[in-house]
């Protein structure tokens, strides 16, 4: 063992060089036993990834994110997709129409396979079907972020983009000749289109509304037979002072409700029916006008989602911080009244029930912004009205409107820590479908009365015995890796779910 004071060595010819000391050179290094040696951590290169794809079909022609999806109202297999990039770098906005009927259903496995997962995995099941584009939607110079087919027959497909353009195509779908798309033209009145909504009124076919980043709201009627002047402005509104973030029509198409980042809610009397019944505000444009000036309605941070119940009795709006406000709507079914218009801007809290504008409830169960709302009339006796809210905090909260909006189910962590992007009920049912930035689509059975369930206790998605999870579909990248599901359609029956993915892929799942 060397002493603490090393012996003085004679000068070395290359004394300026760093050389290995003699004592270190004599040290022997034991041979490594490679059989028992632990592998070095090589980072992500050795990470084992488990890829799951539950889809029966896919469409992967897009080169970048898909932001929006719309389903034909008469031919549900026809789906339009819109995104941020086409096949070339000089096509920053692009869309496609695909036919999902080409997707082959997978055979139902016999009951004996249920007890043997390995046998089920080894079963001869067809691989996912690759879908081809029927038609490419061109002409936008920036991302297509909104699409809709006009009602009631889907005669026109309308697209809205971040370039402010509104474009329309006549759609001729015939079983014998397939799909023919004919450009009808475009218009541009705003800098950015935020959303599109088709009017369901049979008295006003082929009508759409849009909301813009400058707060304006526009209503167009499209004449598919007049290529020279197909898009005609019906109304335009400018009461919102910040971006108009969401909008929806009443189920009968008589009124249009929109919300804004400035915290305002306006229910527009587009066709003058509220005015004919004396249920219009003094501004002459709205049947209901709510603003933060009424502190009971104030939502700090703005409003971002809106939904109306199937009977058009109330409108629900969701905003920052998990806040939800429920406001009554005017009743337009009876004979016109002689009542004079209400005062605008104050919130209408003291208005008569028949004129709307009353705050029915203020809800605050979730901890972050409410980005999506959905309402259903579940088949019970009497019928049950359910309101579902999806939040940035990853939870879904379901309220029972027939019980003064009591919390029926709070599924904490429905999409783990990732934002819930969309919730939608299968029509007239207890079944709710949701998607999120985790890249997963889930389906829930909301029968029962569980409250406060989910990942709060389990650390993951709610299980069937607590949150009512009955199905989940995976295939998108998700998990914060730019692969969240940004939208889906499921028709009226929910038999097939088609997605729009942030990873540039659309998947078809089968229930």
Enumerate the spans where pLDDT stays under 50 for 5 or more consecutive residues.
1-10, 12-22, 24-50, 335-353, 455-465
The largest beta-sheet arranges its strands as: 5-1-35-34-33
Envelope shape: globular
Strands, count: 35
Structural class: mainly beta
- Main sheet? 5 strands, mixed
- Alpha carbon gyration radius: 29 Å
Name the helicity range.
under 10%
Quaternary structure annotation? single chain
> What is the percentage of strand-forming residues?
35-45%
Description:
By secondary structure, this protein is mainly β. The protein is built from four helices and 35 strands. A hairpin with a 4-residue loop joins strand 24 and strand 25. The radius of gyration is 29 Å and the shape is globular. It comes from Akanthomyces muscarius.
Break the fold down into its secondary structure elements and pairings:
Blueprint: H1 22-25, E1 57-59, E2 66-71, E3 78-83, E4 94-99, H2 117-122, E5 129-130, E6 133-137, E7 144-149, E8 156-161, E9 165-174, E10 178-188, E11 193-198, E12 207-212, E13 217-222, E14 231-237, E15 244-249, E16 256-260, E17 265-268, H3 273-276, E18 286-290, E19 303-308, E20 314-319, E21 324-328, E22 359-363, E23 370-378, E24 384-391, E25 396-400, E26 406-412, E27 414-417, E28 420-425, E29 431-436, E30 441-445, E31 453-454, H4 455-458, E32 469-473, E33 485-489, E34 496-501, E35 506-510
